[in-house]
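User: what does the whole thing look like in 3D?
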Amino acid sequence: METTATILHADLDAFYASVEQLLDPSLRGKPIAVGGGVVLAASYEARAFGVRGGMPGRKARELCPQLIFVGGNFSHYQRLGDAAIKVLDDFTPVVERISIDEAFADVAGCTHLFGQPREIATAIRRRVRAELGLPISIGVARTKHLAKIASQVAKPDGLVVVDPGTELAFLHDLPVSLMWGVGPATKARLAEIGVETIGELARTHSGALTRLLGPAAGEKLAALSWNRDPRKLETRRRAHSAGAQSALGQKPAVARVIVPTLLHLADRVASRLRAKARPGRTVTVRVRFADLSAVTRSITLDQPISATTMLAEIAGDLVRGVLGDHPREKTISLLAISVSHLEESAELQLDLPLGLADEKRRPGSKKGLARFGADRAIDKIRERFGKQAVGYGTVALEAARSVPDEFRELAEKEL
Amino acid sequence: MRVILERSNLLKSLNHVHRVVERRNTIPILSNVLLSAEGASLEMKATDLDLEVTEATPAKVERGGATTVPAHLLYDIVRKLSDGAEVMLKTDEDGNAMTVTSGRSSFRLQCLPQSDFPELSAGSFSHIFRLDSVALKGLIEKTQFAISTEETRYYLNGIYLHTHEVGGKLKLRSVATDGHRLARAEIDAPAGSEGMPGIIIPRKTVSELQKLVDDPDVAVTTELSDTKIRFTIGSVVLTSKLIDGTFPDYQRVIPTGNDKKLILDRQSFAAAVDRVSTISSERGRAVKLSISEGQVTLAVNNPDSGSATEELAADYSSDPIEIGFNAKYLLDVAAQLTGTEAKFMLADAGSPTLIHDMADETALYVLMPMRV
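Assistant: Here's the predicted 3D structure for the full assembly of 787 residues, as structure tokens:
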């Protein structure tokens, strides 16, 4: 590990809401939320009232009656997000963007040009504020994990540099929920054994963690709690997977809900795979139940796929498998599909026409080729006439969505 | 039980039997080999509940009896004993342990009661016939490589053995396919096989059987019903469940109208495929064949590392064609062919291609191209 803290994690504050306030000065200083049925993002003024992203609009209004809802200016999000990350590029070539509004940068090689990491981070923050009018928080540390935690602590509009000597002292007082990989479910499990801070996690016996979280997650969290994070910045990152998810509120776990949702998710994922000409071999689904506990299931196929209907059907089988194993769960709150083991190859092994029942799920069969051909035709129409021009019937006929697809695309986009 | 026998006899039989035992078992007794001493022989039996192998070997039985001990452990012990030694197997009074003694070496193994050892009830067989080991070996080896490993297509996870009438003569055929390629071999149907059901012999059984028929001139007695099959090869008896499924109608994928004939020297072709595919990536394995009058050009293109081509003289006089194949599939077929020349019957770049062994008309291979 490096002896000085040179990894920056830069994260735009309340990004979507900040952009709206930038575009419409009358919104500045006021509690605003992007979205409608569901809060997609909330300004810091709104957060002070307890409004959070993902919250139903009605509940947000109850918490903050003067809350102003605004629609999304999606094209501006992309433009301003790109421009902010571009500022990092001016300082170092080692930049790993991880989403629309956050990126890592390693400044180890450019301190002789621009000064100490703290000075570089200050300069970046000043430029983003001056040139784009947006607040950005930066964490600086020796590891990616700690830099990300530091930027969360720095918010809003702040800078936190964690010097190597003070790392554990800094880390161990913080709540576990700041750690990468600790969501509500893991947080709740850890709370059951009395672990609420990262320090308590660090002092928990590794066997207990493994029993609680499984061997992979247990070991990972234990290492992170001692600031052991060997991950390097991946500047030329090729996507390892593509995924999409849909929060459903509380819906009955029946085909009428599941089938169109999966087809819609598959459409989003598979069209991205086709656009990059990178079909994938492993399909993973995630089913979240009413109590927010979730089950993940995956299958690795013989041949990589990128046809929408194939993906939807395979995902459907996996979801049915999950529900079959959890017969008491009657309500689902989220479905997600992801495809990994992406492959480059344009070569496709064709199938012997044996007339088997599962042929339509094989990319090399006659039926599989026909499905792929139909999808490519849809892709071409959408390129010319827009996303809504054509689609699968069950998806198009589904009720209006609470979250616009443009917003999902920004979040799911490959950067 | 107290029995003395030659280490070499014990090793040979254990070698046949212990392979059936899976390395990881959830049911402890399945890790064990059943030893039964009676008369003048020691019988060994192992099973994975789908497949059972039994072999008897001559032994001096001082006290009859039976027990079970860990199969791989016993095999490893016997393997390391000195050649030509005698081995004594003796169970304790209470039957909880067995001692293996040879020369100055002595091992104590924990036993499980023989009464717990599962019996693969064979039921009754509807058909019985004899094959010579060479013929059986041929049926297996020419097709085994094409068996599918995909669990979801369990009915392709074995060799389909069935009778088929060709020109008024009954043939016994073996067929295997993984959905991309198909291999078919046939012999004259042996007496007794008439009217047998078409059966699918599981991959593991096929592979054990193949190892057991290495001896060239042994008659193999085959007994079968529609759920089980039993092969008796000398002193070894292999009984196996069959795959409960329907093998697809494979005839429909064997092309009959392919009119582009390509004849190649088998060894030079295989060597050329092997050479050009050196450049291919792990998963992109296509080799493109550009076939024109008198010549074939093999080409592999890997965007990450480069490309390779090789030209090869060929007997070809139809219209030029370009067609891609998985290099491994071409090599697998080439390895099965026995003649100096291989004959390809092609239609187009998206249709099944037929490959014949010029020296053996009974074998036939179908290969689906890759789209390149």
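In plain terms: Chain A touches chain B at residues 302, 343-356, 358, 362, 364 (CB under 8 Å). The two ends of chain A are 28 Å apart (CA to CA).
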